Prior knowledge:
By secondary structure, this protein is of the alpha/beta class. It is built from seven helices and six strands; from the N terminus they run βαβαβαβααβαβα.
Amino acid sequence: MGGFFIDYCFNINYNFTMEKINLLVIPSDKSGVGKFRSVDPHVKLQNMFPNDFHVDIEYDVDINNLEFWKKYHLVHFHRSIGSNYDECPVFIKKLRSMGIIVIGDIDDYWLPTKEHPIQQLILQNKIHEKIVNNLKVCDYVITTTELFANEIKKFNKNVILLSIREMTNMSTKEIRASIKKFKKIYSSLIDVKEE
């Protein structure tokens, strides 16, 4: 296979030949984690490798319009696809049945300690359980630390350790190295799925 670089075309379930990996990124917010874990690295990925990747970033997605989703090979989301955490696991399974690789991204433990200002809100709405349910059904989960990766592996063995620092504090060399890791990971996921 093409290894870490996409230097070939292949067919997937929809009988079209792909020259680029079409990636949909669904950030959880427009600042903070959404900007630094979802938007910035993927914009850089497309800018650095425009012949290999086409990246769309959508904050509000329609899970009822399946035609919209068919053009993507990879979907990367943080915590949940859309605001309805209860519907998300069923929808992830639907995407996977369509041949779309679904990648959950999480950088914080899903149940904050009692000192956290929204811990009670999370407990009352069982958001921590819903986040875990989302991650359980993903093809892969990206996270930040070995400790956290080991916790996630209790319910999803396909964990990718990838620490993403705020790009404004990184040198150009560090940014390129970080984005090359994304390219390597995403490209290898396509290779694995197609074999």
